[in-house]
Request: fold
Amino acid sequence: MSLGLNKLPLLKLVLPFCLGIVFSEYRLLYSHEFIAFLFFLTIYFVCYVIYTPKLTLQKSWILVFSFMILGYLHHSFSNPTEAKNHFSNYSEASFLITSIVEAKQVKERVRALCEVHYAGYSTDSLKQCEGLMMVYFKELSLDQVKAGDMHLISADYVEENENTNPLVFNYKRYLQQRGIYHKIYLEKDQYFSLSTSHRNIWNLASLSRDKCLSVFKEHLTSDHNLAVASAMILGQRNLLSDDLYDAFTDTGAVHILAVSGLHVGIVSGLIALLLGFIKSTNPRVRILKLIVSLAGVWSFAFLTGGAAAVIRASLMFSLYFIGKAIYSPPISFNILSAAALIMLLYNPFYLFQAGFQFSFLALTGIMYFYPHLILLFHFKNKFIKGIWAMVVTSITAQALVSPLAISYFHKLPTYFWFTGIIAVPLAGFILSAGIATLFLHMTMGGEFVLTKIAGFTFDTFLTGLNYFIYKTQELPFCSTDDLWLSNRSILLFYAALGALALFYKLRKPIYLIFTLGFLLIQSVNNNIENRNMRSKKSLFVYDIYNESLAQLFRNGVLTEFSPGITQNKQVEYICANNEMYHRIYAEKLPAEVGINSQGSFHLIDDKVILFYPDEKVLEWSLKKPIDLLVLSQDSYHNLARLAKQFEIKKIVLDGTFKGDKFKLRQKANQLKIDIHLTSIDGALEYMI
Amino acid sequence: MKKFKKDIKYSKKERAAIALLIVLLIAFYSYNLFIDPRLITDSSTICLEDILTHGGEKEISELKTKTASLIKKRKTRQKIFYNPAPKYESFDPNKTDSLKWIQFGVKPWTIATIMKYKSKGGKFYKCDDLAKVYNLPDSIFRKLLPFCSIQKKKKPTYTKSKKTSYKSSYNNQRDSTTFNKYKPKPLTQVDLNSTDTASLKQLYGIGSVLSARIVKYSQALGGFHSIDQLTEVYGLEKEVIDNNESRLILKGTVKKFNLNSEADSLVKHPYLDWSISRVIVNYRKQHGDFKEIQELKKIRAIPDSLYNSLLPYLSVE
Reply:
């Protein structure tokens, strides 16, 4: 039996295109000469395909391979810093003129994503340029800036720092995938605002969002309701508190907060409902209705900031209805592939965004597995049938998303199938009530009776949703936290899902055996990984700017060494992934794990480690050499004296040290002691 | 396999569409690479007033002034960062790091000299010693002198302190006797007459060169009878001796030279030279064996100071 790929030409192109983008992202064989070679190779292939008769299979393979090369080239050419008029090529410029794209309050600073328009050498000599930059305005509040505001700034910008601690989220890469390569911190006397503003569609959308938010504030009674409404309808999640966001994540309802295909579907359904009153068979009226639907959907997409998931849904919606109008109802997977291809042609970095990945995986899961799973049970009652359909939708969406979600968020919600039954319909009511409130407020005013009723309904639904989410979070075993999936595990899970998909398609038991086989291999792999991690004995000295922390991982037990108390968010953020990776099941004090300690000296197995000593350490003497000496800003760090008193094999200086690191390194080299500076060489992993 | 091949194949129309798409993309890349004026370094420039949508001459003039002021501040900031104005504060030259020296306005090459001197065991015992630093201009020395403060070292007390500044919660739980293998020892005393260079290097201010000199001198002398003799070791400052005085002991007796039988060997002694030792030998030849050491006083070539120095090392048998 055939896989049916002959009916999915775009899918056969999208997959190699994605592969090419991945190769380029990880810089496989990257060089300008190689890119030039690929460029001309593609031209040759196209000419070969056009001018060579017959050989259809060979030509098909060549086209597939060409698309992979195109993916590679497209990604390489899309790097904004490669453009000659990127502002970083004007490093001699005295000032830059920027406009704000979006802004957020971060403690006492405003963090604004700014677009650079001009690089100036003097007021009479400005060059047009482009590029994005993250700007931190000190001592500024959010109400003093808005999207489109232009500033003239004169300060040094830098590239985002690489976080050198193990397994920490790569924020630099995250920003680079959004085209942001530089950042700048501004004092008050390093910029001033210009009276002119930069207006484009995104700025207008941002201003519209602010206006909508002010309307919501008038009708909603609590901060939580406002935060959820802002996230669901306007795509802004900065008002969500940590506990509210955690509640949605734990219950598997977080997809409601991220504007996605669900919301676009609800909006398009609303529009269809409103336009349903216009009943006409005139083709022009039908085209007009289609245009109004598309305009409504795309307006919603722009209003919510154009996130990847929304763009995907809007594109698919548009392609489906246009395709339906022109031709016979198109095949869903072709539309999905077309949407993916268009988005990746627009911006190949979408491929690496979580929103894009989840959106396409969820929809692929629903489109592929839903038709098979829904047939498992037959219900006559429409209500129960509807509930069963929602359960199946939740399960099929979660099937392909779960491995990746665990990889990103390290947790798995247990009741996602249940919250889907309640939260999804509620989300539909909330969206409808919210849009109705906005429409009535802007047309009839806030005091109009219908506006107040719509606002009250909107607020009630939001209160109901939040209450339901919080109550579900209180249920036992709501979510399984601290999960860690290695890349190998993720591949095995997806291989199992792929084999299951083939089984559904081809109905051959061998594919079911493959599915079980992959799951078994994954189980064995997981056990081996757990065992390996737990038997590992290593000491990590982290690179943290204002905290000193060393962690010992030994047989699944974590022991911390620190001269101070380290319970702040920043430290937890830096250490969390590393702790999960090492499969920690307990945290114990050194005394409890049999570590021999005396003052700052610790005997860990047969290694002598001296943590953060003070000057009194010179009163001691040792028969054995010190295997590792850990120093910080506040510890005693006179290397000459320490080396005279003790034989030292290795020194590590943590991120708190603000003194002359290079001199210290020079000193250590003179004393022939190996030295590791975490602020330069990264966090240290020392094997015990 | 046939079905798989069928799955992979494109129809003629599909191939044409895909080829067209590829051609369009290549054309787009070619345009961006070779033709797009945005991507070619543009030599044309515009003025600030061209980008302002509104604003009269006065506002534009204000804007230009503000911009000039902003640029000037940026350049000043850069200058301060790389060429800071000296900031003086109380300091101990033995404990000052390179960043502090930069703050004082000392040039990097002079700082390198100071750091190298300290790394070799060099110390500033008084503030005037700063003047001896090679390449330190007199003007900077005079500016630094009022802020210089060298604390005299207290004699170290070698009692083990149980209190540590380590705030970790587990510290208090450990009993000091459980870490038996590494019990803290008081700083060891050094017997000058039986020591080696390794033990001497444990003393403050004594490195490999000085320790070797002390050992060599001790062997040449036949042992020290007084700690003050250490001042005779070349390069060993009195302050170093004072700092380590409590750790220095003298055990055993010195090696004595028999004036009657080993007078010829006296020339090797550091206190004597060839002429004095010849005088002693000749005196013995003329007057017979020495009956007592005080007879040396009769030799005019040997002054009282030399006699007193030699006394512990001499015997008559």
Observations:
- The longest strand of chain B covers residues 190-191.
- The first helix of chain B runs from residue 2 to 8.
- Strands of chain B lie at 190-191, 248-249, 257-258, 314-315.
- The radius of gyration of chain B is 41 Å.
